[in-house]
Design goal:
The complex is a heterodimer of chains A (265) and B (215). Chain A is built from eleven helices and five strands, in the order αββαβαββαααααααα. In chain A, α2 links the parallel β2 and β3. Chain B has 215 residues and is α+β, with helices and mostly antiparallel strands. Chain B has two domains: 79 residues, Glutaredoxin (3-Layer(aba) Sandwich); 118 residues, Glutathione S-transferase Yfyf (Class Pi), Chain A, domain 2. Helix content of chain B is 57%, strand content 8%. Chain B has a four-stranded mixed sheet with strand order 2-1-3-4, covered by helices on one side. In chain B, α1 links the parallel β1 and β2. Chain B is globular. The mean pLDDT of chain B is 94. The chains are: A alpha+beta (265), B alpha+beta (215). The interface between A and B is medium-sized, with 33 and 29 residues.
């Protein structure tokens, strides 16, 4: 991906108010938050902390890669701690964060003593380790899983490069007071349109991208989709009936609503 | 046994990745060369909706995206005791993260350097030294992280050779023929690691197939 993902993330964070609270676990009555610390740590008191290792996500609720991981956790109904990383002050390049992700990009993830980074590797880990929790996000059959894996790579290599750049032009630049480049938008929309043509054909044969069941291949699209649906690029999805139905289906999921709710603090 | 076919182009790094994986796992297959430049792939849209190589077929299963082919082969055809994946999700999670590191961190500068230093000269186009300098600086940062990683881990993905290492084979093969080689040589653990990768049977057989065509 030519666009540095952190440029996109930083752009998003430069224009949003500093997070004061993020309600990660609505039913739990008490959580800790601090207004003064650069690192905002929100601890959800688990009913049996000794029984389960704590899952932690270090990132920003506005970062597409962070949202990708959080969506998997919500789909699985897993409790987790969200550690907010303030990218405006370069916290993602701090020694403490680099110990979690040596490439200095959000998100980073912990499950007990396991430390992981790369959002799509994290979601795959969650889907396998917690296969019996919540929504099934992978296929036990190896050939069906191979097909889903194809469309996971397609999301990362064909869809995301154009989608992320289009997000930058249409959503981030205006918020930063920069001018959207109409020629770039036209070019990117044409390229993304060609990808969506392939998706349209695929979705006439398959209910979801990865197969007949919803899975990671679909979920991975949600974060950039969310931003693009709020822009003029929405037309690219609306104009393709099967793509439009698929988008409506996956964005209506209750777990996804919880991810978006984290942004409204 | 289902017949296996790999549609590919022997000068393409993606095809090399699939070949290395097939050879590492001793999987029998037939290579069907596709002349990408002559537009042969466009005649087979059902095989590859994005018009890319390689495409792997096994019976009625058709896969594209070289890293998917690599992952499928490693999970399906692991040799007992020499699997290049982990069964335990926590260990496989780490290996999977480093497969994505190659894809998202290593490959962008590596593939630009391959374009400038290998493919452009082959096409009679001039190398842009400014780009080379820029991309080498980016690759150096990645290799510094690799050097540190390899101080805690025998291989990139864990304590054994996995797809996290194999996935680098095409770029290593092409970059070792260029001055970029020095960046790998200058870092002792990276040097030991890449030399280890080059001694793999998957490497040797992939190179043999690729270079036989050129001979």
């Amino acid at each position: 991906m030519a666009l540095d993902e952190n440029v996109l993330e930083k752009g998003i964070l430069n224009v949003t108010p500093s997070l004061q609270t993020v309600n990660t676990q609505a039913p739990q009555p008490s959580f800790l938050h601090s207004h003064t610390l650069k690192i905002s740590l929100f601890v959800s008191l688990l009913p049996n902390p000794a029984v389960m290792a704590v899952l932690k996500v270090h990132g920003s609720p506005f970062s597409t890669a962070t949202m990708r991981v959080v969506s998997a956790l919500y789909e699985k109904g897993l409790q987790f701690e969200f550690v907010s990383i303030d990218m405006k002050v370069g916290q993602h390049k701090s020694e403490a964060f680099l110990a979690l992700n040596p490439f200095g990009q959000v998100p980073a993830f912990e499950d007990g003593d396991l430390k992981l980074f790369e959002s799509r590797a994290i979601t795959q880990y969650i889907a396998h380790e917690y296969a019996s929790n919540g929504t099934q996000l992978i296929c036990p059959d190896s050939k069906k899983m191979a097909i889903m894996s194809v469309w996971m790579e397609v999301e990362a290599h064909q869809y995301d490069p154009h989608a992320a750049k289009l997000c930058f032009e249409l959503c981030i630049k205006p918020m930063l007071g920069l001018t959207t480049d109409p020629a770039a938008v036209e070019d990117l929309e044409a390229k993304l349109g060609k990808v969506l043509d392939v998706y349209e054909a695929r979705l006439t044969q398959s209910k979801y991208l990865g197969g007949d069941c919803l899975g990671l291949a679909d979920l991975h699209h949600l974060p950039t989709l969310h931003y693009l649906l709020g822009s003029s690029a929405k037309k690219l999805f609306d104009s393709r009936p099967h793509v439009s139905a698929w988008v409506a289906d996956i964005t209506a999921r209750p777990a996804w609503a919880k991810v978006i709710a984290m942004q409204k603090s | 046994m289902a017949v296996r076919k790999l549609y590919g182009a022997l000068d393409s790094p993606s095809t090399m990745r699939a070949l290395a994986s097939l050879f590492e796992h001793d999987v029998e297959f037939e290579l069907i060369p596709v002349d990408f430049q002559a537009g042969e792939l466009k005649k087979m849209p059902s095989l590859s909706p994005f018009g890319e190589l390689p495409v792997f077929q096994e019976g009625d299963l058709t896969l594209f995206e070289s890293r998917t082919i690599m992952r499928y082969i490693s999970h399906e055809y692991g040799k007992r005791g020499e699997e290049q994946v982990y069964e335990i999700p926590k260990l496989q999670g780490i290996a999977a993260a480093w497969i994505d590191v190659e894809d998202h961190q290593f490959d962008p500068p590596a593939s630009k350097l391959i374009w400038e230093l290998v493919f452009k000269p082959q096409k009679g186009l001039p190398t842009d030294e400014g780009v080379v300098e820029e991309e080498e600086a980016k690759l150096v940062k990645v290799l510094d992280v690799y050097e540190e990683r390899l101080s805690n881990s025998v291989f990139l993905g864990g304590d054994k050779f996995t797809s996290a290492d194999l996935t680098h084979i095409p770029s290593l093969y092409l970059l070792m023929k260029t001055p970029v080689k020095r960046l790998f040589e200058e870092r002792p653990r990276v040097r030991a690691w890449y030399r280890g990768v080059m001694s793999r049977p998957g490497w040797e057989k992939m190179v043999e197939m690729v270079e036989k065509v050129r001979a």
